[in-house]
Amino acid sequence: GVFDATNTTVLRRQKVRERCAREWPPVRLIFVESICTDPKLLLRNYMLKASNEDYKGSAPEAALQDFLARVRNYEAVYQTITDAEGPEEEEDETFHRLEGDRRISSTVDDLSPRGDGEAAEPLPPRHGSSSLRSSGRPLVRQGSSGLGLRPSAPREQEEVLRYIQIIDAGKKLVACRADGYVLSKVMALLHSIHLGPRTIWIALAGQTLNDERGVLGGDTPLSRAGLVYSEAVCAFVAARERSSELRERGCAGHAIVMTGTLRRYDQLTQILLSKYEPKDRTVLRLQRLNELCAGQLDSLSAGEMRRSFPGEYQARASDKLHYRYPGVGGESYLDLIMRLQEAILSLEQQRSNVLLVVDRAVARVLIAYFQEVESHDLPFIDVAPGVLEMTRSHSGFKYTHFDIAAGLATTASGPGGAEVLS
Asked: Which residue(s) pair with 358 in the sheet?
């Protein structure tokens, strides 16, 4: 969870840490501090704040001066986070190890062989302190692989200080003990996000021969109508790359292409490369951007799925988010979300414009990420044929959908489509 609050002083942050320390299972706490000294970034942010609901009906200059006064009040009491806020560090780490029915506590040194070749006797555990300690050393690690190590349940634990400082909107990051799987993902995301102006186009792929036959999935080429649609998408994107509207916002320019490895994506990409400049634009073909895999049910029609696998059909209809297609490679929407994490980070890192050519399920995950859609609503996002344009500015993304009237896009009866889901 995220506790969004202005924890401006050491005392307030200490209270948060003390409250989390009373939880069991442990709550791993990390503070994220944003520090900005860039005058241009600050002015843009002040102007945004001065236009929010607090200043509705106020004159812009008066609103700005009032907000600046608030900033000065914060600055008068603000204390930036430092290592000194954390508990005193010790040189050695201590582990809890479960051996049979007997719980023991020992330090790394205690588990090391003695000079005479015999292992040291483990020290007896100590309980009831705010930080589990043995021989004066804090217990700081749990669950080491292969040894069955785990912490005993304390009444209260002393949590080490963890924090990330973001300086000038991502120009620099400082991290203290941002360890573990989740925090490594948080670090990667914060390191990827930036405020640079750019445009992202999400284009739905064209109709395939399997779409034409009402067959799920597969890797057939585009139909005639799919080719017409793909040519229209390329013409639209090429025109938008040069548009004066986007140029005024600093969001014009040639896009790199990010897409999957299926034939329908490659055909659209080849049209763009052959007909529009630059001919040598960067193309990233990533398997992780392929459509959701239907596993054993791939290449069936929706009717065949209903008749031959009524249980699967109903199971998917009743739980669209968690249902996983049976068989080798079969995926759920949750699987797809996990698969797309690295692609989303790569997309966030891009400084240039990006064209994504994808199918509906992948488009839903991308739209849910950028528009902050709850995961349980993700499978129901309407993805209309055409191109979704997202232009980035200091205030965030602006979203505009453009219809493509020529030809046909992929139908809604694929593995991530509406017909199978309803």
From this structure: 204
> Cα separation of 261 and 284, whole Å?
9
Give 200's strand partners: 354, 390
Instruction: Give Cβ neighbours of residue 348 (< 8 Å, ≥ 6 apart).
Output: 189, 192, 193, 194
Contact 386, 409 (CB under 8 A): yes
Name the residue among 127, 162, 139 with its Cα closest to residue 20.
162
Task: With residue 283 as reference, give the H or E element that holds it.
Answer: strand 283-285
Give me the residues paired with residue 97 across strands. Answer: 104, 149
CA 257/CA 238 separation, integer angstroms: 12
Give Cα 185 distance to the centre of its chain.
Answer: 8
d(CA 94, CA 109): 9
- DSSP element (H, E) containing 199: strand 198-204
* Token pair recorded at residue 62: 């008066």
Q: What share of the chain is helix, strand, coil (3-state, %, to 5)?
A: 40, 20, 45
The model carries a pTM of 0.78
CB 332 within 8 A of CB 323: yes
Using alpha carbons, select from 263, 310, 259 the residue that is nearest to residue 288: 259
Kindly report the number of other CB atoms within 10 A of residue 277's CB atom.
Answer: 11
Instruction: Identify the residue whose tokens are 């006797």.
Output: 121
Strands 353-358 and 198-204: parallel
Backbone angles phi, psi at 192, to 5 degrees: -90, -35
Q: Per-residue pLDDT tens for 343-400?
A: 999 999 999 999 999 999 999 999 999 999 999 999 999 999 999 999 988 778 999 9
Q: What is the DSSP letter of 241?
A: H
Q: Is 81 exposed, middle or buried (0-12, 13-18, 19+ CB in 10 A)?
A: buried
State the Cα–Cα distance between residues 291 and 300, nearest whole angstrom.
Answer: 15
Strand partners, 105: 96
Condensed to tens digits (0 to 9), the pLDDT of residues 59-103 reads 989 999 999 999 999 899 999 999 999 886 554 444 343 333 333
Instruction: Report in angstroms the alpha-carbon separations of 308 from 403, 413, 415.
Output: 36, 17, 16
How far is it, in rounded angstroms, from Cα 359 to Cα 415? Answer: 10
Q: Is the peptide bond before 278 cis (omega within 30 degrees of 0)?
A: yes
**Hey, which residues does 39 pair with through a beta bridge?**
none
Q: For residue 366, give both structure tokens.
A: 């991308």
Distance, in Å, from the CA atom of 81 to the CA atom of 200, rounded to the nearest integer, reads: 36
